[in-house]
Amino acid sequence: LDLLINRTNRMYNLIQGILDYSRVSRIQQHRQPVDINAILKEVLDNLNPPPSIKIDIPQSLPTIVATETHMIQVFQNLLDNAIKFMDKGEGQISLKCQQKDQFWLFSIHDNGPGVEEKYHDKIFKIFQTLKPRDQMESTGIGLAIVKKILEKNGGAIRVESQPNAGTTFIFTIPIEEQNDA
To answer: Which of 18, 134, 136, 166 is deepest in the core (most CB within 10 A)?
Structure first.
């Protein structure tokens, strides 16, 4: 019975993930000024990280022109992965942001297990996971959604990581004037 319930939940999560992935390019959503500070507060409230994980976020982050639900998905997926895959008793996650040319450059770094270089491209492909499903429940869709959202909005994402040295996801979002939205 437990096996049946687990597989039903896995199938539900997989279907939801596929729907989310297909919606990114199929549905045109309204772009508007989005306060990243407010988004992160909502995301962290939803994720409710354990007290053993410290998350450092700058006091002042930009307001960007984007689709709010897409930005929630980007930050939620990246922070959720950093929390979910943390293998240290004392986890550390830090977010940074700077302006670089015509882009906002964000980075999310964690002190988790890291990812071997041979998997750096694989993790952004749909249905790809690095751990077997019986070790870690994951649909393998989250990072594919993040990549699709960022690319659809003129940005990009990459990963810097080595085993036992943590992981840094670096992504860009074009700077647009708020009155152009």
So the answer is: 166
